[in-house]
């Protein structure tokens, strides 16, 4: 059905409909990012347990997990700069005796089999060899151990050329952007999927409602970069330009429904 000009200007935009305005103008009470800790708390991790922060970046989550649950942690990441920052953060937190940091990828982790009570994995699996990484996570977990995965996937609203540009710029494995691929791979290596919770745009909505202006700044950055593309590429290179642009549109694509962050809980069968 095609909208007519008369409907558009006369009815839809021409008259204020309080009921319709209220329908989309009212907060949907979006959850915030701290919900991940609530999910992790359900794993029953305690002071005698060791958890894994897979893809730890600067160890901010490893530090928080140890502080919240009193556990020990192993933090791994393949990027040297991240490891440098992780060591610094752990030292500043006074937790060097509780957190061990390793430079390693998820595909081959220097961790003893069956030694990890629970795994925290946030914003990592887009970049890795997924079968090898999930198999390693399965290996290091104790029987009955759980893995929390926060992962962003593409939806059917993502256009092919948009996807190709985004994945190339952000060093992502295209196949890993499919929830079907993720779920199939998780089951193939032996995991049971206990929970799937699509976050969608909730966190972004919450941040905006709480007064965070990052989304506006991202939009402004995209507009400026788009209008100065030739100059910026000449000065800084195409790869740097594309990476910065993709980072700015990432949250925008979540708001538009092209990307859908999702929380999974995976369990290794056993005790």
Summarize the structure.
This protein is of the alpha/beta class and 271 residues long. The protein has helices spanning 5-12, 18-25, 35-41, 60-69, 80-92, 130-140, 160-169, 179-188, 202-209, 214-227, 229-236, 238-255; strands at 50-54, 72-77, 99-103, 116-122, 141-154, 192-198, 259-267. It has one domain (5-267): Vaccinia Virus protein VP39 (Rossmann fold, 3-Layer(aba) Sandwich).
Give the helix/strand layout.
Blueprint: H1 5-12, H2 18-25, H3 35-41, E1 50-54, H4 60-69, E2 72-77, H5 80-92, E3 99-103, E4 116-122, H6 130-140, E5 141-154, H7 160-169, H8 179-188, E6 192-198, H9 202-209, H10 214-227, H11 229-236, H12 238-255, E7 259-267
Helix pairs in contact: 6-8, 10-12, 11-12
Report on the architecture of this protein.
This protein has 271 residues and is of the alpha/beta class. It has one domain (5-267): Vaccinia Virus protein VP39 (Rossmann fold). It is 46% helix and 20% strand. It has twelve helices and seven strands. It has a seven-stranded mixed β-sheet, sandwiched between helices. Strand 1 (50-54), helix 4 and strand 2 (72-77) form a beta-alpha-beta unit. Helix 6 (130-140) packs across helix 8. The termini are far apart. The model has no long low-confidence stretch (mean pLDDT 96).
């Amino acid at each position: 059905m095609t909208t007519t000009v008369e409907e558009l200007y006369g009815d839809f935009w021409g008259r204020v409909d309080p009921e319709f305005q209220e329908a989309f103008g009212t907060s949907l009470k979006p959850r915030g990012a701290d919900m991940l800790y609530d999910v992790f708390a359900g794993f029953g991790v305690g002071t005698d347990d060791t958890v894994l922060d897979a893809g730890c970046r600067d160890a901010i989550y490893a530090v928080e997990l140890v502080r919240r649950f009193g556990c020990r942690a192993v933090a791994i990441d393949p990027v040297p700069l991240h490891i440098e920052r992780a060591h610094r953060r752990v030292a500043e937190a006074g937790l060097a005796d509780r957190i061990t940091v390793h430079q390693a990828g998820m595909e081959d982790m220097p961790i003893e089999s069956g030694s990890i009570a629970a795994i925290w994995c946030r914003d990592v699996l887009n970049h890795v060899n997924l079968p090898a990484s999930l198999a390693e996570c399965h290996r290091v977990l104790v029987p009955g151990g759980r893995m929390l995965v926060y992962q962003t996937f593409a939806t059917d609203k993502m256009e092919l050329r948009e996807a190709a540009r985004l994945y190339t710029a952000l060093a992502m494995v295209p196949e890993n952007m499919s929830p079907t691929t993720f779920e199939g791979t998780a089951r193939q290596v032996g995991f049971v999927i206990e929970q799937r919770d699509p976050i969608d745009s909730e966190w972004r909505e919450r941040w905006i409602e709480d007064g965070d202006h990052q989304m506006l700044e991202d939009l402004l950055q995209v507009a400026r970069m788009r209008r100065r593309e030739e100059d910026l590429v000449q000065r800084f290179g195409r790869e740097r330009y594309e990476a910065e642009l993709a980072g700015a549109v990432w949250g925008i694509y979540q708001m538009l429904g092209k990307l859908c962050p999702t929380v999974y809980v995976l369990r290794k069968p056993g005790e």
